Amino acid sequence: MRVLVVEDEPDLQNQVKRVLIDAGYSVDVASDGEEGEFLGDTEPYDVVVLDLGLPKVDGITVLKHWRKNGRDMPVLILTARESWNEKVSGFDAGADDYLTKPFHMEELLARVRAIIRRSAGHASPLLECGPVSLDTTTGKVTINGEGITLTAHELKVLSYFMHHQGRVVSQTELIEHIYDQDFDRDSNTIEVFIARLRKKLLPDLIKTHRGRGYSMSPIE
Amino acid sequence: MFTRSVSFRLVLFSVAWLAIALVAGGIALSQIFRAHVENTFDNSLYSHIEELLAFSIVTDGNFAMRGHPSDPDYVRPLSGWYWEIAINAKAASRSRSLWDQELDLKNMPRPNLGELVSFSASGPRGEPIRISAETFTLPGLEDEITIYASGPASEIEKTMEEFNETLTLSLLALGLGMAAAVLLQVVLGLRPLKLMQSRLHDIHAGRAERMVGDYPSEVEPLVKDLNILLENNAAVIARARTHAGNLAHALKTPLAILQNEAANMRDDRCKMVNEQIAAMNELITRHLSRARAAGGVGVPGLVSDIDDIIMSLKRTLERIYIDRKITISIGNMENLKVAGERQDMEEMLGNLMDNACKWANKSVKVSTVLSGVYGLIIIEDDGPGVPDDKLAEILHRGKRLDEATPGSGLGLSIVTDLAELYNGALELGHSDLGGMKATLKLPLIEGK
C-alpha cells in the first residue's frame, strides 16, 4: 500500500514517514501543496495524509483540485485546525477522515488502516480469502488459524491482493502500490514475491493471467 | 428625561421665543395703533377748535361768541363732547353739554400761543376724556384765549378694544400655526436621527451589518463615520482572532512532534510528557475557542442559520462515524436564527453532536424548539446515558467522565463557556432514546 504524506514540518514529516514505513507502507512525502498536488495527480496512492496549512497551495485547495480531477483516493486530513467549521469544510472538500494535532501515532495508523479498508469496501479490519486471513490492524497472517511469518514486501503484496479480491491486478499496478517513488522498480521481484506467497500459503491462491496480471479469489 | 430630548428642547425654545415675540409685537402694534387713533381723534377735535375760533369775536374790547357749533354732541349734557374757551384760565364760554360744570382747567396744561396740545383728562363726571387745546390772540382783545375741545376717551377705548381683540385673535392664530410648524419641522428634521437609531438597532440585533439608506447631508458624514467604525471594529476583531488562531495552530505541530518523540521513550517520562502535552493542548483549544467567541459576541450583524449548521454537521459526523454506522436523524426544525458568529455556533453544536455520536449506540436525534426569546436545540442519543449525580459533574470545566473517550469533557465545557458568552445555557438530562439529552438554549435574533 502506498501512502503520500503532505506535511511541511520536516520533523513531523519524518516521524509520520518512519511510522508508516514501520507499519509496512510505502511512503512518499511532499513538503508543500504544489508538490503534493502533483504527486497525488500522477501517482496511484492508496491513501494520502494531508496537512492543511501548507506553503504555496493550502491543503483544502489541493484536495478540491484532486476531487475535481477525479482523483478519488482516500484522504486523511492531519491538521492543527480543530474547529468544527474547519472539519466541515475539510469533509465537504472531499476528505475521508480528519485527525487533529497533536495526535498519537497509533491513532493515525488506525485511521489510515480504516480508510484503506473502507475504500476497498471492507467493513471489518479482518480480511479473509478462503482459509487465509489478514488482520489489517496487526498485520498478522494466518492460514487455517495457523500463524505465518511474512517479510515486509510479501505482506505488502498479500495485503494489496486481500484488499482487491476477485480483481485482476497488473504487475504495474502492483509495483505502483507497493514501492514508493524512489524505489528501483524491478518487475522480476514481483514474480519472486508471488512465488514465495504461493509457497508459504497455498499454491493456487494467486492465479496468473498471462499478459494481464494476477488475481486472488477464495478457492471454491 | 424630557429635558434631555433634542425635540423637546427645540420645541420648548422655539415656542418660548415665539410667545415672547408675539406678545411684544402685539403690545407694539397696539400702541402704534393707539397713537394713530388718538391722532385721528385729536385732528377731529382740532377741527372743532378751528370752528370755535371762527365763532369767536371781540365786541367793545370784550370777548363774545357769535354762535355755537351746531354739532348735537356739544349740546347733549355730559356727553363727553365739550368745549370751553378760557381767558386767563377763566371760562369765557362753554358748551351746553357741560351743563353747569366746567372743565378742571387748573389741572390741565395751558398751551402757549400758537401751540396745539392734546392730552387725556377727566370730565365733569370723572369720565375719561381726550382734550385738545390751542391758544390764540384775537384782534382787539388784550388777553389771549385758549380753546379747549374734548371728546369721550371711551370712543378711543372702544376702537382700541375692537382692534386689540382682532389683534389678539390674529396673533394667537399665527402663534399656534407657527408652533405647529415648529413641531412639524422638529419631527421631520429629527427623523433621520430616528432612522439612524432604528438602523443601529437593526445592527445590534443582527439584522444588518452596516448602516444603509439615504440620509440628509448633515447626517450623512455621521453615518459614514459609524460605518467606518463598524468596519474597523470588525477588522480588529478578525485580526485578533486570526492571530490567536495562528498562534494556536503554530503550537500544535511542535506538540505533535514532541508527543511522537516521547512515544519512543519507554519509561515513566513518556507518560509525564504525554500528560503535559495533553494539558497544553487542552489549554490551547479552550483558550482559542474562548478568544474566538469573545471576539464574536456582540459583533453586530452576525446571524447564524442553525438549521444549516445542523445539516452540515450531520453530513460531517456521519462520515466521521461511518464505521459505527451512526445515523443522525433530524426531528422538529424551527428555522432558528441566532445572533452570533457561525463558527461559534458550529463549535457548540459540533461538540454536542460529536459527543452524542461518541456515546450513541446507533442513533442520534437533533431537533429545535422555540421557547419565548430563546431557541432550544435538543441533541439526544441512544447510548448508556449519564446518571443524575454525574450530570452536574460532566458540565464542570475540563472534567472528564470517561478518560477513555478523550476530549469529551473538554468539548462540553467549551460548549458551556460559549453558551454563557452568548447569554445562553447548556442543560443535560435524560433522553427517551435511552441516552443523554443535551439542550442548548440560545437567544434568538429580535423580530424572528
Describe this structure in words.
The complex is a heterodimer of chains A (220) and B (448). Chain A is α/β, with parallel strands linked by helices and 220 residues long. In chain A, 41% of the residues lie in helices and 21% in strands. Chain A has 2 domains: 2-119, 3-Layer(aba) Sandwich (Rossmann fold), CATH 3.40.50; 126-216, Orthogonal Bundle (Arc Repressor Mutant, subunit A). In chain A, strands 2-1-3-4-5 form a 5-stranded parallel sheet, sandwiched between helices. Chain A has a 4-stranded antiparallel sheet with strand order 6-7-8-9, covered by helices on one side. A two-stranded antiparallel ribbon of chain A has the order 10-11. In chain A, strand 4 (75-79), helix 4 (84-92) and strand 5 (97-100) form a beta-alpha-beta unit. Chain B has 448 residues and is α+β, with helices and mostly antiparallel strands. Chain B has a 5-stranded antiparallel sheet. Chain B has a 5-stranded mixed sheet with strand order 9-11-12-14-13. A two-stranded antiparallel ribbon of chain B has the order 1-2. In chain B, a hairpin with a 5-residue loop joins strand 5 and strand 6 (128-137). Chain B has helices spanning 6-55, 153-189, 191-204, 220-262, 268-296, 306-320, 342-359, 388-395, 408-421, and strands at residues 56-59, 62-65, 82-87, 90-94, 116-122, 128-137, 144-152, 303-305, 327-330, 337-339, 363-371, 374-381, 425-430, 436-443. Chain B folds into 3 domains: 25-159, Beta-Lactamase (2-Layer Sandwich); 198-301; 303-443, Histidine kinase-like ATPase, C-terminal domain (Heat Shock Protein 90). Chain A binds chain B through residues 9, 11-12, 15, 19, 53, 79-85, 87-88, 91-92, 96-98, 100-105, 114, 118, 123, and chain B through 245, 248-253, 255-261, 263, 277, 281, 285, 289, 292, 312-313, 315-316, 319-320, 322-323, 342-343, 346-347, 349-351, 354.
